[in-house]
Design a protein that fits this description.
Among the domains are: about 140 residues, Tetratricopeptide repeat domain (Serine Threonine Protein Phosphatase 5, Tetratricopeptide repeat, Alpha Horseshoe); about 150 residues; about 100 residues, Leucine-rich repeat, LRR (right-handed beta-alpha superhelix). It has 27 helices and 18 strands. The protein has an 18-stranded parallel β-sheet. Helix 5 packs parallel to helix 7 and helix 26 packs parallel to helix 27. The longest helix is centred in the N-terminal third of the chain and has 19 residues.
């Protein structure tokens, strides 16, 4: 039976009551007020004098302190409650009351050893000679006996503590796995856990975990405040019906659970493996009317799970969808885009090029698009008003793997050329004839608002993309792979505002080296101006490039503004060249990432400790670095400056060395 708010838990010492004192005082107040109103000053003096002589001020204070201590304890503020009991003990007349309340509070919080001590102290300091103390002595003895018994047995906190403390101070800190197991402890535990609305706000269900299935199966019989739900299953034992609403109301299936949570569920993460019969995407969207974010993973083709979107009507809440399937086509996603007209973020893995035609026609609400990305895609940051939609702002494709046909992706890029701020696209090369056809079809293709651009510099595409950015004033991050024409690249970049980040890889043509020299010389000259209003190059990433030599790396160090450097798989860099670079950057570099470079040895790692401003260091797949190099680094580095060290797949660095590093550096991450 649920307690009323006014009920007192019988397992807790009830507070003293003000009512007896208040009743006599109110009667006096009425008599005094009446005498004053009648100007009967003799009676007024008699009433007040009698009350002054008889009123026990300490009794009133004791009742107030005891009541407040009880209330603090019920709120979970044990320290404040104990402080009030100590105030009671400071008055000789309240001493037994104070010890009794203190011991009871400690017992309630499971501090049984301290409670036993408080009961004993109360018995020692309460005089048995005084008649008024006998009831308190009896209570202290009984409490001591109970505390000693409980101290020998496990304490059931959930049953003993008030519901407010369980709900506010315990439940929010329990893991889902703990709450699942706790459902089986007792009826009291089950009721308290199930009746706490926020307990299942974020729920993960896995058909390989019987405890999560136990929770999932009781959703239809309870009203839960589920906002985020993740379902992982490969089972095909549960099915849905085309007439989803009728089925939901009478069958204990997964759809019933979605129906029960439809008002609160806003985030849903589903991994159905090879299952194609559990539930369809259209059914989910129709049922969960407040769903804003949906992640759906399957090992089957999406066409087997889409369902019939034409019967669901427009969905006004869903704004973020992430799908991973065996195959996703434009035909699969078109009905979804038509009915879910508020989608602002769409990320798809294992899709084909037909999706670009559909998105060009139907994706007017999209702001972020991911096409087979093999890296994390930015999340939606703010709410958006449909009237203020700006068009597609960020487009990410795969980085490596299959190239995208220029003819397929360019209609979408052209449509959103004035809104794109981020474009990471792996577009296939085009012939000279195809390039001129692109110029003819898209004569005014310019990326006027682009801030971050990544493309693979294949024949024809480099020329087309560089032309698209030649007049931009917003480009800050430039990332590329391969290099068809180094001089053309440098000429374009020298005509733009200074980049803040420059990353390039797979430059294997040695003839490109002079062009890169000219680019970094250009940045060096800008870095010497000390103009704080001008943008500055801060980050350089060079990798997998035969064109990068010792001399070119030394030229990079002459750019005085950059302080973050990433180097990887550079075969033409020598140990001496790397050491010269480090010595030039000793008071400049704050962030360093080194990956797959055999010339990096223990001596070089130890020398990194001389970098005066280095606060982040990441070492990946360095087979010639051993414990000795890390120990040398630790001996020289200022651990108040270098606060994070990441060691990733360095085979000759042991766990004992990592343990030593963790004693010196604030954050050490070891991946092996």
């Amino acid at each position: 039976m649920t307690k009323k708010p006014t009920d007192i838990d019988p397992s807790i010492l009830p507070p003293m009551r003000l009512t007896p004192l208040a009743a006599s005082f109110l009667k006096l107040a009425e008599s005094v007020d009446g005498a004053i109103n009648n100007r009967d000053y003799d009676s007024t003096i008699n009433y007040t004098t009698c009350t002054i002589d008889q009123l026990d001020i300490q009794q009133l204070l004791m009742v107030l302190l005891d009541t407040r201590a009880y209330s603090y304890a019920m709120q979970g503020q044990m320290d404040l409650a104990i402080a009030d009991t100590h105030k009671m003990m400071s008055y000789p007349s309240m001493l037994p009351n104070g010890y009794l309340r203190k011991a009871d509070i400690l017992k309630m919080y499971g501090k049984l050893q301290e409670a036993i001590q408080a009961y004993n102290d109360g018995l020692m300091k309460t005089s048995p000679e005084e008649e008024k103390n006998k009831p308190f002595i009896l209570q202290l003895k009984n409490g001591l006996k109970e505390a000693r018994i409980q101290n020998k047995e496990p304490v059931d906190f959930i049953s003993k503590l008030p519901s407010s403390i369980v709900n506010n101070n315990i439940m929010p800190h329990l893991q889902q796995s703990t709450k699942q197991v706790s459902l089986k402890v007792s009826r009291v535990w089950r009721n308290k856990i199930l009746n706490h609305r926020d307990t299942w706000k974020n729920l993960v269900v896995d058909d390989k975990n019987q405890e999560t299935l136990r929770v999932f199966n009781i959703i239809p019989s309870m009203e839960y405040n589920i906002e985020q739900l993740s379902v992982i299953t490969g089972s095909s034992t549960i099915s849905t019906n085309t007439d989803i609403q009728q089925e939901l109301l009478n069958t204990a299936t997964v759809p019933i659970a979605f129906w029960q949570t439809r008002q609160t569920l806003t985030v849903l993460d589903l991994d159905f493996g090879a299952n194609t019969s559990l539930i369809k995407l259209a059914d989910l969207v129709m049922t969960c009317t407040n769903l804003t974010k949906l992640s759906f993973t399957t090992t089957q083709s999406l066409d087997q799970l889409v369902g019939n979107f034409s019967v669901i009507g427009l969905h006004g809440a869903l704004s973020d969808i992430q799908i991973k399937a065996k195959l996703i086509t434009g035909q699969d996603i078109e009905p979804m885009l038509q009915q879910c007209h508020q989608i602002r973020r769409l990320v798809m893995n294992t899709c084909d090029e037909t999706i670009f035609d559909v998105i060009t026609r139907q994706g007017d609400s999209l702001e972020i698009l991911g096409y087979n990305p093999n890296y994390d895609i930015t999340e939606l940051q703010t709410k958006s008003n449909r009237k203020n939609r700006k068009g597609l702002q960020k487009l990410y494709t795969n980085n490596g793997g299959t190239y995208i046909s220029a003819k397929k992706i360019l209609p979408l890029l052209y449509k959103n050329r004035t809104t794109l701020t981020t474009l990471h696209a792996m577009i296939a090369s085009v012939t000279e004839k195809e390039l001129w056809e692109l110029y003819s079809t898209y004569p005014d293709f310019e990326l006027g608002k682009i801030k971050s651009l990544r493309f693979w510099s294949k024949p024809g595409i480099q020329q087309f993309m560089l032309r698209a950015i030649r007049n931009t004033t917003t480009l800050e991050i430039f990332i590329g792979a391969y290099l068809t024409n180094g001089e053309e690249l440098v000429t374009t970049l020298k005509g733009l505002p200074i980049l803040s980040e420059f990353s390039w890889g797979y430059i294997n043509d040695i003839e490109s080296r002079p062009s890169l020299f000219h680019l970094f010389e250009h940045y060096r000259l800008f870095s010497m101006t000390n103009n704080t209003q001008q943008p500055t190059l801060r980050y350089v990433n060079l990798h997998n490039s035969d064109a990068i030599s010792d001399d070119l790396l030394l030229k990079v160090t002459t750019v005085k503004t950059f302080h973050k450097l990433r180097l990887g798989s550079l075969k033409n860099i020598s140990s001496n060249g790397f050491n010269r670079m480090i010595s030039k950057l000793d008071d400049q570099l704050t962030w360093l990432w080194v990956e797959k470079m055999d010339i990096i040895t223990d001596n070089i790692i130890a020398a990194l400790g001389n970098l005066k401003k280095l606060n982040y260091l990441k070492l990946i797949s360095l087979k010639n670095v051993t414990n000795q190099g890390i120990y040398g680094l630790l001996d020289t580095v200022n651990s108040s400056i270098l606060t994070k060290l990441v060691i990733d797949h360095c085979p000759n660095i042991t766990k004992s060395c990592i343990a030593t590093a963790k004693q010196r550096i604030k954050v050490v991450k070891h991946i092996y």
